[in-house]
Amino acid sequence: MFAGRYLWWMLMGIGIFLFATLSLDYITWLMIQLSGCGDMAGACEPALRLISGVLKPACIWTAIGILFMATLLRLHTLSLIWFWGPIVAIWFVASTPILLFIAADAAALTQPATLALLPVAFLFLAAFVTYLMFALEDGDIPLAASVPLRLTLRLTAVYGALAGVAFMPELSRIAGTLLDMPALSVVIALAQPYLQTVLTFGTGSMAPAYAVLAAFIAALAASLLPHAAAPQPSRSAIMLRRLRR
């Protein structure tokens, strides 16, 4: 999936999510007012159950699915799927609870406490999907040509994935339920505190995680500098290379 198409699908997924989060409740209220079912007790219940219980969750999960699949297809196009695919999958899983929470309570978007509790995996994911929107196509070397920069990106990304696993309280319950393995839930719940201690270097603070996040963002930005400085190939040259293949 090339950059323009990736951007289009990402905007589509974000638009569906924002529609379900911010607009659907107002549309529901308007429909109730126009239909007049509010004048009769219980007359609006079927419509409310359909919208709140079926349509809204369907829109939210569709949006998350579009964002996830578009990112994987973009990584496949750039030949980065084998390493970055599992990393991105972990980031998406760790970010899903906060997305569902925001979708259930749109007012949480304006609450500083909610913004402060954003999972660090969500911030890694936001930085990475933004990077993928840049046009890194034929002839380019995405995610850093230099070995030190590429190593920095990979190490910080692995840290971000481990942080997503360590700081996701729902992970043990979700894993045990989906795989029908209660013992796995116990193992994850016992391992998470130790992993948190390792990732925070025993401080119990999120400062190390944010420092690694800053290094990850800086490395992504640095990897774009050679691409920005290099002359861009013409459209005819790109089409010629594709025809030769």
UniProtKB/TrEMBL annotation:
Keywords: Membrane, Transmembrane, Transmembrane helix. The keyword Membrane applies. The chain crosses the membrane at residues 6-32, 53-75, 81-103, 115-135, 147-167, 174-195, 207-225. This is Transmembrane protein. It comes from Rhizobium ruizarguesonis.
